[in-house]
Design brief:
12% of the residues lie in helices and 38% in strands. The chain contains 9 helices and 34 strands. The strands form 4 sheets. The chain has a 16-stranded antiparallel β-sheet that branches. Strands 11, 12, 13, 14, 15, 16, 25, 28, 31 and 32 form a 10-stranded antiparallel β-sheet that branches. The protein starts with a helix and ends in a 37-residue tail after the last strand.
């Protein structure tokens, strides 16, 4: 081997060694284009948003221990408490007064004391009642004060309390005992001995204050599928008002259009051959109506959304920041998601944005269906927001957050991964223009949105709650309805109340009405309500006086009182309606935010209904009132079981007070009428079943604030659009190498039920 060959081989060896070293040094590292970028700095000082933070499990436990040791009465764990016991029903954050919070956030004042609101059921007293205590300061409680009378004007009667899980269990035991009195009928009608039938509650529970009498609808229960589509035609009315469970009674029985005094009477009619029986086959496995089991093997994966350089939002405790947005988030176990101190570019836009209530009102020719008016806050919109399924409920790479609550037990519970946060590329421009005249260019911006989502499963329905924050300073609030429809047994003129969706199943018509509170602070707390509408004026043509022209013009108006600002549901509303600041923008117009409602609501309950005042918020698609600390919510968890004497009646909030240059709240109702049809089986789809509203800047800025976005794209005919330096879209190809390492799929949502 000559020297030249040796040198060549030595050079190749050195080059190989150098390459291997480079590979080893970079192994495990992402390409430079994939490395996470530093996130923007938070606008708020560290920890300020914690003034709104939900209670931690440790704080909840401290409150329970304090109450157990300082009330001087025996407290039974609510998970096993009977009506004649005392128990802690729930513990949640006591949100501080707005004035205190603003002194702390904006004025350098002291941090408000951290307190809890505890709801207790006192059944073991001479006068049973529901009492609410504020307990503080946390984390080490030292005081409690009864706020019930201050909040509600008197004690809360005991019959108004929500039904507990233990109460439902005791009712179910009573129903099972009663079903044993009709064995021949059950075998004939349902191929059942009663033990495989399940009950579905209705509400409200009676016809007048003090009643606690509930219709329960019975269904075939088949493992692995929703029973809601398999009614057997049998419904029972249970009176459960007495504090002694042994005194509860089954008052009436309904079957296939007829009413009976008892299951014994029903059995006698059957044995005597005087009862028309519809003989149902017991549902079997996948053949059951409404099965969600896949019918085809998995196909190829669909598109996957990911962030090449990591999330562009930041989450710290209860605080989220994203491209100028700053949001404090939380979850009320009863009313659901709530947000505070929403700022854009450092300016507060919304002080509070919170879900208030979800109403589902049904029609049917069966007693259970026709009497159902669910107020879901009483059941627990936040409490029943369970774990989200990664990759389906939210993008696989979203950030998932646990939520904690204490309700019907002395031990805090955790719904892990029950709230998700992600940046969503809608596949749509936020704005764009292609210029084909004079100069040739293209400019645009992708519509990327921060989404905060949680999903509540309330018996049969699943509500997807979305809160979206756009790059132009707009807030979008939207709810999608999915899950199973509720149904009645089809008999008689049942199709007057819905559509037949199965052999003996009537999909019952119903409406969904959702209520929100929006405490807007547009350029400060002092706002007014302004409207703009379109009219036509007929004028002589200025350049041709013998002709006329129909010229549209704006009719502007400032509404002065609450009565003027209460817009009835489904009535025409001004096309533009804005919360206006007294301060102008650069062009002389009041800095404003516009409320734009997207809704297809059904008809509100007639005002002469005995229970209408309990849902009187539903009279209005929008009502604007002066903000008052003593009017924190539009409803109450106690309204469900006593709607005839509502604990909170929203109609009383509207009393013609002036709303000019005041701290104002917008109360917004959205909803839709749902007439179930064949395509609602197995589930109602989200397509077309969503409603909501926007909060949009209207002369708040001097121009669209999204012009400052670093995602903006612009190139002209004189540029090379393929050059990364001229066009950021040309830089995306390397990002394909940045696909993240996905965590293994995990779901623990069945473990905490």
């Amino acid at each position: 081997m000559n020297l030249k060959t040796v040198l060549i081989l030595l050079g190749l060896a050195l080059a190989t060694i150098f390459a291997l070293v480079c590979v080893l040094l970079t192994r495990g590292r992402a390409p430079r284009s994939c490395q996470h970028l530093p996130l923007e700095q938070e606008d708020l000082e560290d920890g300020q948003s914690l003034v709104f933070a939900d209670l931690t499990p440790e704080e909840m436990s401290q409150v329970v221990r304090y109450l157990q040791g300082n009330l001087g009465v025996q407290l039974v764990d609510a998970s096993r408490a009977r009506p004649s016991d005392n128990c802690i029903a729930s513990v949640d954050l006591q949100v501080p007064a707005k004035a205190e919070v603003l002194r702390f956030l904006d004025g350098g004042g002291a941090r408000p004391p951290r307190e809890a609101l505890a709801v207790l059921y006192f059944g073991n007293q001479a006068e049973p009642n529901v009492t609410e205590y504020v307990v503080g300061p946390l984390p080490t409680p030292a005081y409690h004060r009864d706020v019930t009378v201050h909040k509600y004007g008197g004690k809360v009667p005991y019959h108004r309390r929500p039904v507990t899980g233990q109460e439902y269990m005791d009712i179910n035991a009573l129903v099972q005992r009663e079903l044993k009195k009709a064995p021949l009928f059950l075998a004939a009608c349902c191929e059942s001995d009663g033990t495989d039938l399940v009950t579905l509650t209705t509400a409200p529970r009676g016809f007048k204050s003090g009643d606690r009498m509930t219709w329960f609808v019975l269904f075939h229960n088949t493992a692995g599928t929703g029973y809601y589509l398999s009614p057997v035609g049998l419904e029972v009315l249970v009176e459960h008002k007495d504090l002694r469970v042994s005194h509860w009674q089954l008052r009436q029985v309904f079957y296939n259009g007829r009413y009976f005094a008892s299951t014994g009477d029903l059995e006698q009619e059957f044995v005597a051959g005087a009862l028309e029986v519809v003989r149902l086959k017991k549902p079997q496995g996948d053949a059951v109506l409404g099965s969600m089991r896949p019918r085809r093997p998995p196909g190829s994966p669909g598109p996957l959304q990911f962030e090449p350089q990591g999330p562009r939002y930041s989450i710290r405790d209860n605080h989220i920041t994203f491209q100028g947005w700053s949001i404090a988030f939380g979850m009320n176990p009863n009313s659901g998601p709530r947000f505070f101190d929403i700022r854009y570019r450092g300016e507060r836009i919304v002080y509070e944005l919170s879900l208030q209530e979800a109403l589902a009102l049904y029609g049917s020719n069966c007693p259970g269906g026709m009497s159902t008016r669910y107020l879901d806050g009483s059941f627990g919109i936040g409490r029943f927001a369970y774990e989200l399924v990664r990759g389906l409920d939210c993008p696989y790479t979203a950030t998932y957050v646990d939520r904690h609550y204490l309700a019907e037990t002395d031990t805090p519970k955790t719904n892990q991964n029950s709230l998700c946060v992600f940046e969503h590329d809608s596949g749509l421009p936020l704005r764009r223009h292609f210029s084909d005249s004079q100069s040739l260019y293209y400019g645009g911006l992708r519509k990327n949105t921060l989404v905060i989502r949680t999903i509540s499963t309330l018996i049969n329905y699943d509500y997807i709650w979305d809160f979206m924050f756009h790059g132009n300073g707009a807030v979008e609030v939207r709810v999608h309805a999915t899950g199973y429809i509720s149904s009645s047994f089809l008999h008689g003129q049942g199709t007057d109340y819905g559509n037949r969706v199965g052999p003996h199943t009537l999909g019952t018509m119903h409406l969904h009405h959702i209520h929100y509170k929006v405490d807007l602070d547009v350029d400060g707390q002092r706002n007014s309500l302004e409207t703009q509408n379109m009219e036509y004026e007929f004028v002589k043509d200025p350049w041709s006086s013998q002709n006329t022209i129909e010229r549209p013009y704006l009719r502007r108006k400032r509404l002065e009182t609450e009565d003027e600002a209460a817009f009835p549901l489904n009535a025409p509303m001004p096309r533009y309606l804005s919360f206006a600041s007294p301060n102008p923008n650069k062009w002389g117009h009041p800095r404003s935010y516009r409320i734009q409602i997207i809704s297809f609501a059904g008809k509100h309950l007639p005002t002469n209904s005995s229970m209408e005042r309990s849902i009187s918020w539903g009279r209005y698609q929008l009502a604007v009132t002066r903000r008052k600390e003593e009017e924190p919510t539009s409803t109450s968890i106690y309204n469900q079981n006593d709607p005839w004497t509502p604990t909170v009646a929203f109609a009383d909030f509207i009393n013609n007070e002036t709303i000019t240059n005041e701290d104002l709240v917008a109360w917004i109702t959205v909803g839709f009428l749902h007439v179930p049809h064949a395509e609602d089986v197995p589930n109602t789809v989200t397509v077309g079943n969503s409603v909501g509203f926007f909060l949009r800047p209207y002369n708040y800025f001097n121009e669209d604030p999204s012009v400052d976005s670093s995602d903006s794209v612009y190139f002209s005919s004189e540029q090379d659009a393929r050059a990364c330096g001229a066009n950021s879209l040309a830089c995306l190809s390397p990002a394909a190498a940045c696909a993240p390492h996905l965590p293994p799929f995990h779901f623990g949502g069945f473990l905490n039920l």
